[in-house]
Every structure is written in structure tokens, then in C-alpha cells.
Amino acid sequence: MTETQVQTHGEPHENGLGTRLNWLRAAVLGANDGVVSTAGLVVGVAGATGARGALLTAGLAGLLAGSMSMAAGEYVSVSTQRDAERAALATEKRELEETPEAELAELAGLLEEKGLSAQVAREAAAQLTERDALRAHAEVELGIDPDELTNPWHAAGASFLAFTVGALLPLLAVVLLPTPLRLPVTVLSVLAALTLTGWGSARLGAAPAGRAVLRNVAGGAVAMAVTYAAGALLGAAGV
Fold first, then answer.
1. 140-166 pLDDT per residue, tens
2. Could you count the other beta carbons within 10 Å of the beta carbon of residue 146?
3. Alpha carbons 6 and 8: distance in angstroms, whole number
């Protein structure tokens, strides 16, 4: 087996695909969170009052608070992951400098675990090490592409944008529509959006779409029903 063949079956391509799917899944789930949380908020306020100003204020506050929270959380999470990746690469680099033969044997063992014969694994490990030892160990042993470390700013921006896009649907529906149509159209549009995001998350995860859509829609419907009931009770009580 040639070096090219070894690389074709190794982690770089699989990791790249996995990374793209993770980003897409995070975007879908971020939009889903934006839809559900903002819909619950504005529907709850609509249960208490029909004042357009109050609905707009509550919706914008929820959109900004939610999107900033999502962005900050994603930034912290991905920064931690990036720090861990850098530390792992630094450790691997030090081990390659201090114990190159042991690292070569380790790489050969990992390739052998992937299905190569002992002889071919040893030859492939030697060629990969000669070409770029750190990259070979990073990709095969650690599952990391040294040139594509996770970027916390990209993650934060993507989360902010996805949540905002999702939140705009219920916000615009409840603010722009006439009072008689406001609640039913908002609920229907939110349920349609949740159907789409549920289907999208299921497809990205190679899971059955029916159950995912049902869970997503049911969760959103319950959230809106609960917040509307709470808003209506508070409005009736004059709070």
C-alpha cells in the first residue's frame, strides 16, 4: 500500500467531513434554539398583552440575550478545545524530539490497528515520519489537523448568526402581523420552522427524521403553550 493510499484511508478526510457536519449541526441547532426560545418569549408576552411595543421589546431583548449567550458559550467551549489541541500537539512534538524511535513504533502500531500488515505499517510509518512526523502523529494518533485547529471566533460568530436567524422568524411574525392573525400565524410558522430544523438535524446525524421532527415540534409546541398560559394568567391578574 502506498503512502497516498494510507492517507486516503486515514483521519484527514474523515475528520474534515466530521468537522463540516459538526458545524452544520451546530448551525441547525442554534437556529432551532433561536426559534424556540424567542417564540416562547413573544408568545408568552402576547398572552399577557397585545401591545406591539411590548412584544417588540421582549422579542429583541430575547434575541440579543440569546444570541450573545450562545456566542459567548461557544467561544469559551471552542477556546478550551483549541487550547487542548495545542497542548496535545506540543506534547507530541516534544516526544518526537526526545524518543523518535518509540514514536515511530507507536505510529506503526496505530497503522497496523487500521488493518495494515506489520511490514506495510512499518514502511508507511517511516515514509509518513520522513515527510512530516508531527502531522502524521497528529492526524493518525490524535485525530487533529495541525492546519485546521478549531477557531473560537468562527464558532462564536456562527452561533450568533444561527440563533439570530432562527429568532427573527417568531419576532417578525408576532410584531408585523395584524392582531387577529398574530398568534395563529406565529405558532404555525414556528412549528413549520421546527419541522425543518428537526428534519435537518436528523439528516445530518443519519437518524430517522420522523421521530426527530416529532420531538422537535412537540417540544416547541409545549414551550409556547406553557409560556402563553403563564402570560395569560399574569395578564388576567393585572400583573
1. 888 888 877 878 888 888 889 999 999
2. 17
3. 5
